[in-house]
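Q:
Just now I want nothing more than another pair of eyes on a protein record. Here is the record:
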Amino acid sequence: MPLNARATQEFMPIKEVRDGVAVLKDGGLRAIVLVSSINLSLKSSDEQKAIILQFQNFLNTLDFSIQISAQSRKLDIRPYLLTLENRMKVQSEPLLKLQTGEYVDFIRNFTESVSIMTKSFFVVVPYSHVTIGPNAGFFSKFFSRKSKEEKSTARQVDFEEQKSQLEQRVSVIQQGLGRCGIKSAQLGTEEMVEVFYKVFNPGELEGKITSQ
């Protein structure tokens, strides 16, 4: 490894993920909301206009910025094939066993020749605490003499307060999307870590699938 090589973590703005919230190195918080999609081509002209108008009204009511992210990944069909193979092993009917084997071969050959993609849509909701007063940090150094335990408690309280503000924004987002006919769910800690892992490791294959 070159001497001037730097770890990937140094380039990531994320400090930690806890309680379903991404804590950035600059102190900002981020929540991620997984949202469903709507196929407008299956809607009538009036329905399309109504959905677009409702979504436009939703965006205009926001007093904070959001980020809409679409993630495309190749569909991992291996767990499905493994399930079929396990069923084929316990199948007692010869004809059904043969047909299942042929179906498995067809799916495997088809997915190898054609890339089947799956799309996920996310809304990133931000919250950053703003300190009022340009010299607040300067005076706090002189007038705040707290022990490590007190500082740790204060940081936890501050995190909970900011998290509460962030959750209010998430609620606004979910309610607005719901009026557009879009289902949504806030990601927890494990789901967020998985999303970030896939973002920073786009070329890495999924874990090895073993037979049971």
